[in-house]
Amino acid sequence: MFRTVVGVDIGNSTTESSLATIDPDGSVEYVGAALTRTTGIKGTVKNVEGVAKSVMRALEGAGMALADLDLILLNEATPVISGLAMETITETIITESTMIGHDPRTPGGRGLGVGTIVDFESLAESDTETPIIVLVPRGTDFDVTAKAINAAVESGVDVTGAILCNDDAVLVANRLNVKIPIIDEVSRIDLVPVGMVAAVEVAGPGQSIRTLSNAYGLATIFGLDPDQTKVVSPVARALTGNRSAVVVRTPSGDVEDRTIPAGSLELQGETKKAKVDVSRGAADIMAEVQRVSPLVDVMGEAGTNTGGMIANVRQSMADLSNHALADVRIGDLLAIDTAVPQEVRGGMAGEVALENAVALAAMVRTKESGMKAVAEAVTSHLRAAGATKVDVAVGGVEAEMAVLGALTTPGTDKPLVVLDLGGGSTDAAVIETNDHTDATHLAGAGDLVTKLIDAELGLDNLELAEEIKRCPLGKAESFFHIRLENGTVQFFEKPLPPTAFARVVALGETGMNPIPTRHSLDRIRAVRRTAKERVFVVNALRALRSIAPGGDLRQIGFVVLLGGCALDFEIPELIADAVAPFGIVCGTGNVRGTEGPRNAVASGLVASYVASQAPAEPQVGARA
Ligand code: ADP
Ligand code: MG
């Protein structure tokens, strides 16, 4: 008599099923697998919908009916869920009317111009002694502007640059007899102070400015002493990488680069304690986390951004998992330095500065898992749907199941370490030759990478960020070819869609999607890769250190990567590169020889069930 069983792994993001039939002699045949999005938070009754869907799909794929199903094996979901928060810790404020860092799409002319700001009406009457920069108000026609500047230059006025409100810089530049740098799209032109000395710089296409982004360049132009140079150095820093900029020097105008008092984190370890200021950055925070580990809980300083951040994570996890606030503990914390574009307070043209921020991912441990309730709900739901004889059992520690599943990868053997790269957490487990297992769960995984990409590119669109994370980039250079990010060219027979032309595109499975931002391909690529490194390389090393015998990575021989992020086109190679110096062989798993890095926990549940039933060594693996 066969038993038809299905192992179901409810993850933070994905619910996976592995369907098998078991012979009375204990041999297993895997007959189906399926995955769906997890419904609700892992470990809560809302999971039922996803479980039912995934089980039914697995049955469908195997040509079986719900009524055939004898047993559903649910994982004893480690009651850990993850939360995310991000806070900026610096801000740039412009006081009075210094203007910085404006980077319009299409500045005109090129070069550096220094002079006193004169408004457009007074241009004709300007004296010929001092160099001037002309300020052109909203609505002035480009032809009128160009004619007036040409006339002034002819009569001997030394016009060295122009600041425009309209988006006309190129049109004006093309009509001038003498080439000057022109900045446009200055939306609040009324705030630019007339009579002050200013500098306008425009670099050639594909270049960035040299003088205004250099503190000593500013000192030279404005005749600053060492103290004043110190004060303006944030201006130079904010302008780095721009193609164009204006700096106006007003007597008391200033740009402040200040650190927001972010507050501190209190780390409570099993035996040690630490307090660390969040503005000290990720490296310091993580050093303290490691020092006090294992972590028991984390508190944020009340009344500060950090306090609010930690309280939010805790509260949302308490709400979602239906636990009392006091029962929610933070068992791991990953801090990451990031830089996010933010509009500068006090700016005149929507100037943006990259502000430093810290992202925190927290792993929350609740008192108990809600899997019993989930199992009951699954039973009644599926019985009602026609699975008349089905039983639901909860069992197995997730990490142990993951190793059992990973061991179905061809070419693997004990001792073995698995790294499960999921959506919310990075989980690691080790199985030694004597079957002893150990596991660890770390905060931060695929969702954090997506969030970093979203924030650092200023997208405010998680779907787009997810696409950028998963796909290589290209640039449509003509209607018939794209340049791929590795420098090679791909040609097409049919013209590319006009929406893709001259754009950076994400090369997905279903075709190419233009990325609607001004960022260059190189910048998007750099953000994408460093986000993956900051999350997964850091977490892989942390995880391996915590389960390696004696904390020594050299004691680990083989690492198998599992989970959704092991499907990524570059994460596995980034991790493999990072662990190679320790002599570790690292590759992506192929569960059951067919499922790739997916389905390990679900298949492990079946394998462990079989082992618990049959007294003899069970035969695990697909039967031909
Ligand atoms: P969990 O076990 O927490 O439910 P998963 O193992 O399903 O999580 O992994 C989810 C993560 O994997 C998400 O961050 C998702 O972006 C990522 N992911 C899923 N499929 C792919 C893919 N084909 N390429 C890259 N990343 C992927
Ligand atoms: Mg998982």
TrEMBL record:
Report the leader peptide range.
Answer: none
Q: Where are the transmembrane segments?
A: none
InterPro entries named among the record's database cross-references: ATPase_NBD, DDR_dom, DDR_swiveling, DDRA, DDRA_swiveling_dom_sf, NA-bd_OB-fold
Give the matching Pfam families: DDR, DDR_swiveling
Report the residue ranges that make up the Diol dehydratase reactivase ATPase-like domain in this protein: 276-609
Gene3D superfamilies registered for this protein in UniProt:
3.30.420.40, 3.90.470.30, Nucleic acid-binding proteins, Swiveling domain of dehydratase reactivase alpha subunit
* Ranges of residues in domain DD-reactivating factor swiveling: 94-255
Top-level taxon:
Bacteria
NCBIfam families xrefs: reactive_PduG (TIGR04491)
Q: What is this protein called?
A: Diol dehydratase reactivase subunit alpha
Organism expressing this protein natively: Mycolicibacterium hodleri
What lineage is this protein's organism placed in?
Bacteria, Bacillati, Actinomycetota, Actinomycetes, Mycobacteriales
